Amino acid sequence: MGSKRSRTNRRLTNVLLVMTAILVVLIIFAYIDTNAQNNKDNNKDDFVLDETPITTKPDNNDIDNDDSSDSPQEEPTPTVTDEPEEEPVPKGPIVLAFAGDVNLDEDSKPVARYDKENKGILGGIGEELVKEMNDADIFMLNNEFAYSTKGTEIIEKSYTFRAHPKRVEILKEMGVDIVSLANNHALDFGEEALLDTFTTLEEAGIEYVGAGINLDRAKAPVYYTIGDTTIGYVAASHVIYAMDWYATDKRPGMIGTYDPTLFLASIKEAKENSDFVVVYVHWGKERTHDPVSYQKNLAKKYIDAGADVVIGCHPHVMQGIEFYNGKPIAYSLGNYWFNASKRESGLLKLYLNPDGTTDVQLLPAMNDNTYTYMIINEDERKAYYKFMEDISFDVEFDENGFIFEKQ
């Protein structure tokens, strides 16, 4: 009996030892598995960037086609510095340029010279001026003729002007961006030629103001936006040959300013939708350097309505410059490239500065036998600016042609 109990006790002891050993083994394996899982999770954190989906197409130039490794690229360590960020470089001024009357009629002397010289625009306008015109952000002049091979000439008029549509390429060589069609020659060959003029300019990518297929288009401002500045352009004529030259709701034509009510509304509209308003107007008395009283009265009304500059033409000679409420008025820029006479001309430049101020500069030019050039000679420049001061109103010019109100 005693032997049987001993054997039984030994068996129980052996079973307990085996179970204890198994338990120890299980504990060891559990510990190993836990460490392995922790290591796996840690490795997963190290490679989390690889699991981020690509949402943009990579640049092929940035891919090394010989590298087939899937290993992630190390993130660059950011450099900590106490140096302040650089201030942005101030932007330069917006440059607006303006010239007076241009005539490219097929029988005009400028066109004859252009064709004869076979030098492009440099055959008729000096290189210095051509560079200034093309360098300006926006360049405007008065287009005093129609582009067409059609239409009926008004034979009662002393002078009628019409150019072949191909002549629009001359404007492009000059760097022209926008023209005024509000003048006393745009309808010399009737509505048909005027419509051709619209089409020719549109196809050339040159804007126009002051005339249109109907009244809404004729009085509508044209806008340019450069950076965060919008410039609005409007134009009108005080010199119109006949009543049927005025645009209506159903008739092409131009906008007038004999009664300025409608034109003042256009200026106000431009002011509401832009930061700087240009008014270009055809007015005055031909071949006189003195503006007539209505020019001075209208110019003030234009500025009171919102104009920031008033540019005039039609007299075919230079007229004086004046400031009203700090806004410049150039009563006439004369002929720019029109006939064979020898007369003073000029290229007016406005600098719209980043700080909101405006600088005004007149580059001295001369027409001489169908050639327009910048005056370079120092003595001639001084004489030119003395002449301009004499015909202007309380302004002075420095040696570079910048214009200031007299204090």
Write the layout of secondary structure elements.
Layout: H1 2-46, E1 94-102, H2 109-117, H3 127-135, E2 138-143, E3 146-147, E4 162-163, H4 168-174, E5 178-180, H5 190-204, E6 207-209, E7 211-212, H6 215-219, E8 222-226, E9 229-237, E10 253-254, H7 261-272, E11 276-282, H8 293-305, E12 309-313, E13 321-324, E14 327-330, E15 335-337, E16 343-352, E17 358-368, E18 371-374, H9 378-391, E19 395-397, E20 403-405
Parallel strand pairs: 1-2, 1-15, 2-5, 3-4, 5-6, 9-11, 11-12, 12-14
Antiparallel strand pairs: 1-16, 7-10, 8-9, 13-14, 16-17, 17-18, 19-20
**How many DSSP E strands?**
20
Indicate the low-confidence ranges by residue numbers. Answer: 1-10, 34-81
CATH class, please? Answer: Alpha Beta
- Mean pLDDT equals 86
The main pleated sheet reads as: 8 strands, mixed
The computed structural class is: alpha/beta
What's the name of the CATH homologous superfamily? Metallo-dependent phosphatases
The amount of helix comes to: 25-40%
Rg over CA atoms: 39 Å
Q: What is the approximate shape?
A: globular
- Total number of helices: 9
Q: What is the CATH T-level topology?
A: Purple Acid Phosphatase, chain A, domain 2
**End-to-end Cα distance:** 138 Å
- CATH architecture field: 4-Layer Sandwich
Number of domains: 1
- DSSP strand content: 15-25%
Query: H/E element string?
Result: HEHHEEEHEHEEHEEEHEHEEEEEEEHEE
